[in-house]
Amino acid sequence: MTQWKNLDTLASFGELAKVQKVNLVEAMSGQNGADRVKKYSVPMAEGLTYNYAAKQVDDQVIDALEKLAAEAELSDKFAELYNGAVINTGENRLVLHHLTRGQLGDTVTADGVDKRAFYVEQQQRIADFANKVHSGEITNAAGEKFTTVVQIGIGGSDLGPRAMYLALENWAKKNNTFKMEAKFISNVDPDDAAAVLASVDVAHSIFVLVSKSGTTLETLTNESFVKDALAKAGLDASRHMIAVTSETSPLAKSDDYLAAFFMDDYIGGRYSSTSAVGGAVLSLAFGPEVFAAFLDGAAAEDKLSANANVRENPAMLDALIGVYERNILGYPATAVLPYSQALSRFPAHLQQADMESNGKSVNRFGEPVDYVTGPVLFGEPGTNGQHSFYQLLHQGTDIVPLQFIGFKNSQIGTDVVIQDSTSQQKLCANVAAQIVAFACGKADDNRNKNFEGGRPSSIIIGDQLNPQALGALLAHFENKIMFQGFLWNVNSFDQEGVQLGKVLAKRVLAHETDGALKEFSDLLNI
Amino acid sequence: MTQWKNLDTLASFGELAKVQKVNLVEAMSGQNGADRVKKYSVPMAEGLTYNYAAKQVDDQVIDALEKLAAEAELSDKFAELYNGAVINTGENRLVLHHLTRGQLGDTVTADGVDKRAFYVEQQQRIADFANKVHSGEITNAAGEKFTTVVQIGIGGSDLGPRAMYLALENWAKKNNTFKMEAKFISNVDPDDAAAVLASVDVAHSIFVLVSKSGTTLETLTNESFVKDALAKAGLDASRHMIAVTSETSPLAKSDDYLAAFFMDDYIGGRYSSTSAVGGAVLSLAFGPEVFAAFLDGAAAEDKLSANANVRENPAMLDALIGVYERNILGYPATAVLPYSQALSRFPAHLQQADMESNGKSVNRFGEPVDYVTGPVLFGEPGTNGQHSFYQLLHQGTDIVPLQFIGFKNSQIGTDVVIQDSTSQQKLCANVAAQIVAFACGKADDNRNKNFEGGRPSSIIIGDQLNPQALGALLAHFENKIMFQGFLWNVNSFDQEGVQLGKVLAKRVLAHETDGALKEFSDLLNI
């Protein structure tokens, strides 16, 4: 059994603080810099590479991080997790999202079943259903094919699947696997559902209601919205809706749905893109084969994350460097900057995955920690961001570590040559340029045009954003977050911080308020 | 003439640091809290209200901020700006975006013309053009009406207009002023242009090329993309494109465009939504009357910002409180959380406006400052964010000040009653609940379920997000950023931090690289 200890009680953490800091400007200049780019590079799955040459580390720092990884027993903890230990102690639950895409260790049995078999069974059921929808075996009441799938869910049931859909939409169209357009309804704001419903042909739409508990307020409310719209169109809602939920939820056996597909309590919402939550909408949109390829990419990356050798484990390395930046170098935020318009909502998904997992002030035993944990995470695609918030990243008073993502090839392949280069080359040239600009800066006598440099970044480089690469990318970040949770000794798999707001909102709706809450309720006309 | 001094040289800043800090949990609990909600409220324009009861301030702090405002001469500096002083010293330019929506002070003459008259003339020209497009007087070569407008621009030519379009799309549809769908092409990623072009009917699309200089790489590249697509469809590009640019740019007098509308060097990209940059696309999409109403809202809010009484000037108050949070309380980031799906991209626009304006390390004289300036700004709409990163906001180790925005009424008006409340009521109940949850927290013996509270927020409340309210909202934040720039003594109107990346990217494309830059270029196959 591993020992769960606070970061600041580890001898190796004390040692890490003493290691000479790297001068990034020096390190990344001249031949030094070229050598580092070749050296500080680790293969990921599916042809991706994690390059950390422009991080504020060197062999001494990495050695110290390696010792920290060993003392924190990161590999052993991951093994306990994928072998079925109760890692989510707060909720007394196993953490099994890795099992949705592969079997890394022992057979895990829970609720009396082999969980890997259970997840595979759900994938198979979804694949069969999706194939029948695509072939026209399952249709609307008029016998017409469905053309659109609309996901109704919020948080993890929305951000991840939506980001993955956008990431692969153009790829699927280009590769002739695009089956149906997908739309998403999430917010309890009535204008969200109303606008989406106005934009689709409800008679040819299939709605996926996603709620693990079957009790999420926003989702059930939006289900009613959809049922109203179907009724107004003279349609039988039960011919247009499927559910993704847990087997014990009220939605599981209801006649209100064409079919129900299952997840369970061992898959957190923010880790559910590879479960039935992502599986239903993505299999309907792109075909089950595309979803299967996405899972394969994630599984391959998971295998690399299980490697105990830090230097060959990109997620672990990324996690360790992040903790070094946060707890030793003192950087308060981090930005994710994909040079890929298809990844436009990937940062929003990571914002949830990261901030909801590790934005905690108590350790896994409920004791306050004396160090900072999860940072603020934000991001937008490049090159757009270059014309926006990069000003602060380059010349602001705070240093914000950066995570770039870039691909050699576009998804669609349509391109133009302007000034002797394609758009794709311009895109790649920009990301290469930014890494060096942030790291090395450029002295200028006009201080307003001066760049201090010393701003660390890493980059994940791939050939093309395809389903496998996307799966690997997602698993990399999920596993990075997990390792950081181990280092900070927090439970990355609960989210008690979302509860108080829910309780107070119910009180407002029941008009059981006083003090400031009553005043604000009055101001908002509730 | 006003004196431009660093924040830390002001006596009142030293005094501010000495004022007793507010215990927000105590302040916002019980009758105290109710009293604060009534008291700490300022009217904005167009029926909006800025409420700062849940900020970490009290009368003593506000008194000290009032002295700071006076010593920093915030009102006088704003007056100098709108009366035509060279506030953008780095680029030796006037700062005139306020003139696009009203005349706050003296007539401002530049380039030999009355600039207010110039901006009004452009609005009028755009209105005439848009009316002719809508009436069918201006059509494609086949004599058919245009149905779609596609903006080609990046940064300020993209984020602001896009956010405003999304903010008013449903309102316009509901109020029968919706004329044409708008789409946006921004990224140099070829998949961006290719995907947008595949989604529109190019034969019935009018493209708005937006580039002040007429030289922005991304925009010119995407123009070629569009021209290729038009040519492939057998269409004459010059019948489908208009330009928004400066009068001196190569685009201004070109036969390649149906028409050209003008901005100038006194309107920064991130402040250009109320200029021709926003005017063309929004007037085409919603009609010139809607754009005019948007400008009216901004003008009305600008007037309030010119009030020297801090307690009656919401933008100035917001700016002062923000500097107090950043420089005295030490909070490193801030989040903007609109409870309105229509404002889904408003935080991304503010991210640019704020971080590009005040993410600076030198003062307006080019001397390094010894204090932190602009914070990281991020945000997503509520209630979505509640199921995502709010965990960290509630229970993370860092305190992140919050800016909520809420409206009593939805835009579309379609709603459902579930459990005795409408979705709109649920939405409003949630934002009210969150303010109190963040401020007051809730003690729990289980520390994992404990909420410390003490997390400050303010809220802007309106009746409905309509064009006037949106204008007021935008102007509020623009002016807040301006006042913060005055306080930090930085030039909020240049962006030298974006230059180095451009220079290095050109070098990569010319294959004039060495060291790390060459290695990264090779890795990315350039």
UniProtKB/TrEMBL annotation, chains A, B:
PROSITE patterns: P_GLUCOSE_ISOMERASE_1, P_GLUCOSE_ISOMERASE_2, P_GLUCOSE_ISOMERASE_3. It is found in: Cytoplasm. One of its GO terms (molecular function) is glucose-6-phosphate isomerase activity. It holds the Pfam family PGI. It catalyses: alpha-D-glucose 6-phosphate = beta-D-fructose 6-phosphate. Its EC number is 5.3.1.9. SUPFAM superfamilies: SIS domain. It comes from the Bacteria. The active site is at residues 356, 387, 502. Pathway: Carbohydrate biosynthesis; gluconeogenesis; Carbohydrate degradation; glycolysis; D-glyceraldehyde 3-phosphate and glycerone phosphate from D-glucose: step 2/4. The keyword S-adenosyl-L-methionine does not apply. The keyword Cytoplasm applies. Catalyzes the reversible isomerization of glucose-6-phosphate to fructose-6-phosphate. Belongs to the GPI family. This is Glucose-6-phosphate isomerase. The gene is pgi.
